[in-house]
């Protein structure tokens, strides 16, 4: 491998090839600290041309590539294996805004730009890039694309699939697919960019993207409301949609066990508790006062247990911080069996009721920490306790997963709404995914990457 590493150093510069264990350490462990790898090295190309030549070098030397963005994956999709023969490739140096076309509501950015950097670039032009995640300060656009990230505003704006107009991708043979045009309509054959969104780096290296922008809202109304049950929450969701249509930007839910975790690690920050908390946000043009008044008028016809409507931007940010910190709070709270599930929104009450009952029957005293994006049916349904004396929570993971996923698929749902598959869920994908769909995906993988050098050991 010495010749290979020397060739890589000559291509991208010695300073951008990390081989020392201390330098590569941040790239070897996933965010949840569940998967630990040992890479051959970490390469940081400085341009699309360098990335393409790097892929060609890897192919000649039969070195596998593990693409890695901000390393915020919860499924181990960006972690190398322990063989010491895989090259981690990160686009951290490719973070330029290549073009911002405000009249076309489009921005072309390189894959290493953080989500927050893209949001700020859009804001400076009076536009909104609406993807919003708790990790937006560190996650990168390439990773957002590779996992088809969703976040809190999917209800109004959609996932990365809906937010992407074009991609630039280095294919496994080193050729570059340049499909960055900012078109809303193009019927010249297959939409090739969709092959790579959600593929978790198994079909190529995304180096740049053209993304949709929207008018920057001038008014927001944000409320935290307590209700008695998930059935009431879904009734409220439908009522808010009927009243406000696409001005309803976010509809998040936080159940009681999750609130208790917040109280343990952020004491005094929850203004009140209830069986379910709803975090609701409207956005529009105009001014905050009119939108707040409209929301308050609608709320006056409901029967919440408790509630607060933000009266300033500072209060709004405080409410959102409660929601955004939940993942970090869970990490501090200890290990959990995580489920990034989605069902039709109409089926959420049945899922919560029936799956919860099945888990409690199997594990009396089980703690179910549920929260997430109820507006699009996506629930983060995490088990942080199963039974007394269980030294390793993950001993129960296969049985817990089977209970949860059986209920999810019975209701027409999915086991991966926005976090991907990675190393965590391939066996479950085999169990639940339509075999023909898997066959077609593997056919595409074999056609593009016959030597299986792009992110091997994951789910394709």
Automatic annotation (TrEMBL):
For this protein, the parts annotated as crossing the membrane are none
Q: Which GO terms describe its molecular function?
A: catalytic activity; FAD binding
| Pfam families, alphabetized | FAD-oxidase_C (PF02913), FAD_binding_4 (PF01565)
Is the keyword Flavoprotein assigned to this protein? yes
Database matches in InterPro entries = FAD-bd_oxidored_4_C, FAD-bd_PCMH, FAD-bd_PCMH-like_sf, FAD-bd_PCMH_sub1, FAD-bd_PCMH_sub2, FAD-linked_Oxase-like_C, FAD-oxidored/transferase_4, Oxid_FAD_bind_N
Q: Which SUPFAM superfamilies match?
A: FAD-binding/transporter-associated domain-like (SSF56176), FAD-linked oxidases, C-terminal domain (SSF55103)
Give the record's GO biological process terms.
respiratory electron transport chain
Q: Which residues form a coiled coil?
A: none
| Keyword Flavoprotein set for record | yes
Give UniProt keywords alphabetically. FAD, Flavoprotein
Required co-factor?
FAD
Q: Which residues form the FAD-binding PCMH-type domain?
A: 35-216
The domain of life for this entry's organism is Bacteria
The entry assigns this protein to a family as follows: Belongs to the FAD-binding oxidoreductase/transferase type 4 family.
What is the official name of this protein in its record?
Answer: FAD-binding oxidoreductase
Organism annotation: Chromobacterium rhizoryzae
């Amino acid at each position: 491998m010495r010749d290979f590493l020397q060739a890589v150093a000559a291509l991208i510069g010695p300073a951008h090839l990390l081989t020392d264990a201390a330098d590569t350490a941040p790239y070897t462990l996933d965010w949840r600290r569940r998967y630990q790898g040992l890479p051959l090295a970490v390469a940081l190309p400085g341009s699309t041309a360098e990335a393409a030549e790097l892929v060609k070098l890897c192919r000649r030397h039969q070195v596998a590539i593990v693409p890695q963005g901000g390393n915020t994956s919860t499924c181990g999709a960006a972690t190398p294996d322990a063989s010491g023969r895989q090259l981690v490739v990160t686009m951290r140096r490719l973070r330029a805004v290549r073009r911002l076309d405000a009249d076309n509501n489009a921005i072309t950015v390189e894959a290493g730009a953080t989500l927050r950097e893209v949001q700020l670039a859009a804001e400076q032009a009076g536009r909104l890039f609406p993807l919003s995640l708790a990790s937006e300060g560190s996650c990168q656009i390439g990773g957002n694309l590779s996992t088809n990230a969703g976040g809190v505003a999917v209800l109004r704006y959609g996932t990365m699939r809906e937010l992407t107009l074009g991609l630039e991708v280095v294919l496994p043979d080193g050729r570059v697919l340049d499909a960055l045009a900012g078109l809303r309509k193009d019927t010249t054959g297959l939409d090739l960019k969709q092959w790579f969104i959600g593929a978790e780096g198994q079909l190529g290296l995304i180096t740049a993207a053209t993304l949709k922008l929207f008018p920057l809202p001038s008014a927001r109304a944000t409320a935290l409301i307590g209700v008695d049950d998930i059935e009431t929450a879904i009734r409220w969701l439908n009522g808010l949609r009927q009243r406000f249509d696409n001005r309803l930007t976010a509809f998040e839910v936080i159940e009681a066990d999750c609130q208790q975790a917040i109280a343990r690690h952020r004491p005094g920050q929850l203004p009140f508790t209830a069986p379910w908390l709803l975090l609701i946000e409207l956005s529009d043009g105009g001014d905050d006062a009119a939108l707040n008044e409209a929301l308050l008028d609608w709320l006056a016809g409901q029967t919440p247990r408790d509630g607060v409507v933000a009266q300033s931007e500072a209060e709004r940010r405080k409410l959102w911080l409660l929601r955004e910190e939940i993942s970090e709070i869970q990490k501090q709270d200890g290990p959990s069996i995580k489920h990034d599930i989605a069902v039709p929104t109409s089926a959420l009450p049945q899922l919560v009721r029936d799956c919860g009952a099945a888990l409690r029957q199997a594990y009396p005293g089980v703690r179910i920490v549920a929260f997430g994006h109820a507006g699009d049916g996506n629930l983060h349904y995490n088990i942080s306790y199963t039974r007394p004396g269980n030294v390793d929570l993950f001993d129960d993971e296969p049985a817990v997963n089977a209970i949860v996923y059986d209920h999810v698929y019975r209701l027409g749902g999915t086991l991966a709404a926005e976090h991907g598959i990675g190393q965590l869920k391939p066996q479950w994908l085999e169990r639940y995914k339509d075999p023909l769909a898997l066959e077609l995906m593997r056919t595409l993988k074999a056609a593009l990457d016959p030597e299986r050098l792009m992110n091997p050991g994951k789910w394709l």
